Structure prediction request, 106 residues.
Amino acid sequence: MSDALLLLGMMLVTFGVRYPTLAIIGRLDLPDPFFRALRFVPPAVLTAIIAPAMLMPAGPLDISHTNAYLVAGIASVGVAWWRKNLLLTILVGMAVFLLWRVAVGG
Prediction:
């Protein structure tokens, strides 16, 4: 029962924080540069999540050749830039990660 109450409480807090903002913004006429700037939010958030996990997988900064996360991340960025195909990027990144862990260890 406490899990259900916790879930309900989190739902109410999340709704209470987001709804008033959305209700106010829905009534305002916002400038076009604002909406163009919003396009950069998802890449910025994903970068903020992925970069620390890739550069510091075990805690301290690790930019050595033994860091399979970094090597796979670099390969994924290259494939994404070259082919612009999300599925191929994910597959290549996972393959490089697994092969690098087997080859180099870690």
Remarks:
- Residues 16 and 53 are 31 Å apart (CA to CA).
- DSSP finds five helices and no strands in the chain.
- Helices lie at 2-27, 32-38, 41-55, 68-83, 86-104.
